[in-house]
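Lecture notes, continued. The same structure-token format from the folding unit now serves as the input rather than the output. Read the line below as a description of shape only.
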């Protein structure tokens, strides 16, 4: 997992005006809340007084507000923290008394876009931050966005991203996407075109794949349904579908599926790495055909079915995390998008942004409370929580390329 990227925290629709939300990302807790103007804020969840959870359970008076004057109130002794992370009130010394300078917690830059509250979890100053992915067609005429679908899965986010980049799994995992490996004599994955650097933060690839005419598919449509799928009638002669995909930072993956040019789905997966064995995927589906809002429901339902097929397989991968060295797996040409993604991760390693997971897990929550360092740590001192341990760039790259002893 990496600091210094934009991570989805909650859906906009799930963040009410007076209830903070506790969110776990990169193995740490955060509190997300709105101030009086409705502006969303993301802070480290740990109260620096004595470790209360700002977004955690409240057992005080039922009607007591959890957000006061734009400050989130700690449920333990009532300390109040503003959106900037600075403590404004400590009830035990008297409301209005000046809190000590160290009474501050990390506050992260926020952008609310595409129906999602994103936080920049890192300490880079504004001009050095990787930008949040720009979806050019969002809000444009001729395009329709489904509401954001949340998928909670019990595996590591890199496994999830790699699955979305994998052109060879469709045949075997999604009965309606390929010929299910049935034409053994001629089957192979078509040539993959890779653009190694698309925007400075990831790569892109195109891949034409053969798809069966839908009316014959017993999995997707009933016999004699005339090609009617859950989202409408699709051309029966369909044989080659062009798909493209890529990555943006470690945790964002756009995928284009050109069903019947120019008709396409553009899907965006914003992944929240919760822990090594848990990921929340914020899935945004866009389309430039079937614009009738009545199609939203069936498309959601269909996407859930497809995701369920992937989830079933990915739940059983071993090990849970992606192996750091490619020598621990046997990669073939159809895995080239996966290799390209891992090469980008290695670049983020070089920047020194990778969390030293072994060190972190060994101490986290036992004797030590960690926080992802926020940009304010670059300009001020006196921080109470320890910054999450990071791997030295060279050591991280070396670990990634460590040769397989048996090879
Ligand atoms: S632990 Fe938060 S106010 Fe005491
Ligand atoms: Fe899949």
């Amino acid at each position: 997992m990496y600091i210094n990227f934009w991570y989805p925290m909650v859906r906009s629709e799930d963040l009410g005006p007076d209830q903070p939300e506790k969110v776990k990302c990169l193995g740490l807790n955060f509190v997300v809340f709105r101030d009086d103007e409705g502006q969303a804020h993301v802070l480290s969840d740990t109260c620096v007084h004595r470790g209360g959870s700002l977004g955690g359970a409240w057992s005080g008076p039922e009607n007591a507000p959890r957000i006061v004057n734009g400050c989130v109130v700690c449920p333990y002794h009532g300390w109040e923290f503003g959106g900037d992370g600075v403590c404004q009130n400590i009830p035990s010394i008297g409301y209005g008394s000046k809190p000590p300078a160290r009474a501050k917690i990390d506050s992260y830059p926020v952008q609310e876009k595409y129906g999602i509250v994103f936080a920049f979890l890192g300490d880079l100053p504004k001009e050095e931050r990787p930008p949040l992915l720009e979806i050019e067609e969002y809000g444009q005429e001729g395009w329709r966005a489904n509401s954001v679908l949340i998928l909670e899965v019990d595996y590591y986010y890199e496994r999830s991203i790699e699955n979305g980049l994998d052109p060879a799994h469709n045949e075997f995992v999604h009965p309606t996407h390929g010929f299910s490996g049935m034409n053994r004599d001629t089957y192979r994955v078509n040539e993959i075109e890779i653009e190694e650097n698309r925007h400075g933060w990831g790569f892109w690839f195109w891949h034409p794949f053969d798809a069966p005419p839908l009316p014959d598919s017993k999995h997707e449509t009933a016999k004699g349904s005339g090609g009617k799928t859950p989202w409408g009638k699709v051309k029966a002669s369909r044989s080659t579908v062009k798909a493209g995909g890529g990555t943006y930072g470690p945790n964002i993956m756009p995928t284009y599926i050109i069903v019947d040019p120019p008709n396409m789905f553009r899907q965006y997966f914003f992944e929240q790495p919760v822990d090594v064995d848990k990921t929340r995927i914020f899935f945004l589906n866009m389309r430039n055909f079937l614009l009738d809002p009545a199609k939203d429901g069936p498309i959601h339902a269909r996407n859930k079915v497809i995701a369920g097929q992937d989830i079933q397989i990915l739940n059983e991968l071993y090990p849970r995390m992606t192996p750091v060295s490619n020598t621990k797996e046997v990669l073939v040409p159809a895995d080239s998008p996966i290799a390209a993604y891992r090469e980008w991760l290695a670049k983020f390693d070089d920047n020194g942004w990778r969390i030293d997971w072994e060190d972190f897990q060994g101490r986290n929550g036992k004797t030590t409370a960690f926080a992802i360092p926020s940009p304010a740590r670059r300009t001020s001192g006196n921080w109470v929580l320890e910054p999450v341990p990071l791997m030295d760039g060279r050591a991280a790259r070396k670990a990634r390329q460590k040769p397989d002893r048996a090879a």
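Point for the exam: Residues 215-238, 403-407 have pLDDT under 50 and may be disordered.
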